[in-house]
Write a structure and sequence with these properties.
The complex is a heterodimer of chains A (251) and B (276). Chain A has 251 residues and is an alpha/beta fold. Chain A is 41% helix and 24% strand. A six-stranded mixed sheet of chain A has the order 6-7-8-3-9-10, with helices on both faces. In chain A, helix 3 packs across helix 4. The termini of chain A are far apart. Helix content of chain B is 90%, strand content 0%. The chains are: A alpha/beta (251), B mainly alpha (276). At the A-B interface, helix 2 and helix 3 of A face helix 2 and helix 4 of B.
């Protein structure tokens, strides 16, 4: 398994999650859907150890992240790529330097191989033309692309994506989804994607989990979850249907 | 009733131990940052060295004009006061001795610390605080990169080196100011002034100056880094962190200066001996 959450509980003043269990197999795409403020980003933060569970265990690539410390934890994290919602690029570095950063700390590539790998990653996300631009000069869409290049630079076995289409227009969102599929094809890595965009990700995920009210209300393959009459998902589809019929009426 | 009585005592106790808790946290941060410097790959060490030089430029060179300006004025004022007060009574030889004591032992390290805390310490604290608020530090963690190694170490070392160098430049500027004052008041040539100063400087004064400059540099850089790293995902915390860094840097430098005075000049050890 690339990722396992085993009965994870989390408690903070603003967020509480209970009994989360989820497994993402190698090469699988798992999508966690839920409304804004349901704790989806916290689930990702638990998966990489930015926050610690109150109870339960998080395992990455077969090893326990929960309880790991120092160099062992750093080594475990290097097997994972994390894409923040806003990119979280280092502002003082160019796009190329941002992508090169994880390679300077991890892996065993020489200088020439590192440079080649950086170019390869930038080309894959379509940002080779902006390699020398500073992170602060990039648009949100470009930042997300560079962030994805940075995440895949160390050839991770698992990619964690925090709402990859948030803040993007419909064209950019469609391009981002296409890019994620390309990255999956090229790298063979497993994905855990959190989003509130149910329509965009439901179709092609291998596994879907609905996070609502601090717990997973439905977990399974897309068709299972869609047929499960999950209250949040039903509400989302009802709202979409009403919005579409209103649009047709106006037209 | 009892709670109302004990509460002020509790508050007083917490206030009393707060500086020690702060000192422990600073020492712990310096230790952890120093430890993070080892066991990293050469490519990452090269990045950190490059970033350290960038920090020296960003903090040291940016602060240099202020240091030279203030040093010159402070040296001129100090020399004018010492000359006007003492030259008539003790002769000019004593004037240089007192001036050297004043500049090397107290004015240069402390004034440099004040200027650096306000001008460069704030830059470091704000820089790290912004990195925390924009999730850059968390991004480093997710990549398996220690924020202490990549972000804290170059800033701490850069500010430490810059502050030491700035203390030296402050002395040079202060002596230039004092030379001007002696030229105006005593018609002393620059050569004679320098000769008198060099005669008055003792190894002990230089040692105290260097020890103080290094101590203040370490304290300012550690406090700035600590306050900067304390910011987590909120831009509203950034100005508060900068303000705390400035105030705490000045406070710890003054406390350290007091300890220096007690231990070195008043021989605190002798005071303890009297109480035996």
């Amino acid at each position: 398994m690339s990722l396992e959450l085993r009965h994870v509980f989390f408690d903070a003043p603003t967020r509480s999650l209970r009994d989360l269990s989820l497994a993402v197999a190698a090469g699988e795409i798992c999508v966690v859907l839920g409304p804004n403020g349901s704790g989806k980003s916290t689930v990702l933060r638990l998966c990489i150890g930015l926050v610690e569970p109150l109870r339960g265990e998080v395992r990455l690539c077969g090893e326990a992240l929960t309880g790991s410390r120092g160099a062992a934890r750093e080594a475990l994290r290097r097997q994972v790529g994390y894409v923040f919602q806003e990119g979280a690029l280092l502002e003082g570095l160019t796009a190329r330097e941002n992508v090169a950063l994880p390679l300077a700390y991890g892996g065993r590539l020489g200088a020439a191989d590192r440079r080649a790998r950086v170019e390869e990653c930038l080309r894959l996300v379509g940002m080779e033309g902006a390699a020398e631009r500073y992170a602060s000069a990039l648009s949100l869409g470009e930042r997300k692309r560079v962030s994805m290049a940075r995440a895949i630079a160390g050839r991770p076995r698992l990619l964690l994506l925090d709402d990859p289409t948030a803040g993007l227009d419909s064209l950019q969102s469609a391009e981002t989804v296409a890019l994620i599929r390309t990255i999956r094809r090229e790298t063979g890595a497993a994905f855990l994607i959190v989003s509130n965009d149910a329509t965009r990700f439901l179709r092609w995920a291998n596994r879907v989990a609905i996070l609502h009210g601090g717990a997973f209300t439905s977990v399974g393959e897309p068709h299972e979850v869609m047929n499960s009459s999950d209250p949040w998902l039903t509400e989302v589809f009802d709202k979409l249907a009403r919005a579409e019929s209103r649009e047709e009426g106006i037209a | 009733m009892l709670a109302a009585l004990t509460r002020p005592v509790g508050l007083l106790g917490r206030a009393a131990i707060a500086p020690f808790a702060g000192a422990t946290a600073i020492a712990s941060l310096v230790g952890a940052t120093a430890t993070a410097a080892f066991g990293q790959r050469p490519a990452s060490q090269a990045l950190v060295i490059r970033e350290t030089f960038r920090q020296v430029r960003a903090t040291g060179i940016a602060t240099l004009p202020s240091i030279l300006q203030m040093g010159f004025l402070v040296g001129l004022i100090a020399a004018a006061q010492v000359i006007s007060l003492l030259a008539g009574f003790t002769g000019t030889n004593r004037v240089w001795g007192i001036l050297v004591l004043l500049i090397f032992r107290e004015v240069a390290p402390l004034m440099t610390a004040i200027i650096v805390a306000g001008r460069a310490g704030t830059v470091v604290a704000a820089d790290l605080a912004n990195m925390g608020a924009s999730e850059e530090l968390e991004a480093l963690e997710t990549m398996g990169i220690s924020p202490l190694h990549y972000a804290a170490l170059p800033r701490m070392v850069g500010l430490f080196l810059a502050t030491n160098a700035l203390s030296f430049y402050f002395v040079v500027a202060a002596l230039a100011g004092a030379a001007l004052a002696s030229r105006i008041a005593l018609s002393l040539s620059l050569g004679n002034f320098l000769e008198s100063i060099l005669r008055s400087v003792e190894t002990r004064d230089l040692a105290i100056f260097m020890a103080k400059a290094a101590t203040f540099a370490l304290l300012i850089s550690a406090v700035a880094v600590r306050q900067g790293l304390a910011v987590k995902r909120s831009r509203r915390e950034v100005p508060l962190a900068v303000s705390r860094a400035t105030f705490q840097s000045l406070a710890v430098c003054l406390i350290a200066n007091t300890l220096f005075s007690l231990l070195v000049y008043l021989r605190l050890g002798h005071i303890f001996y009297l109480f035996k």
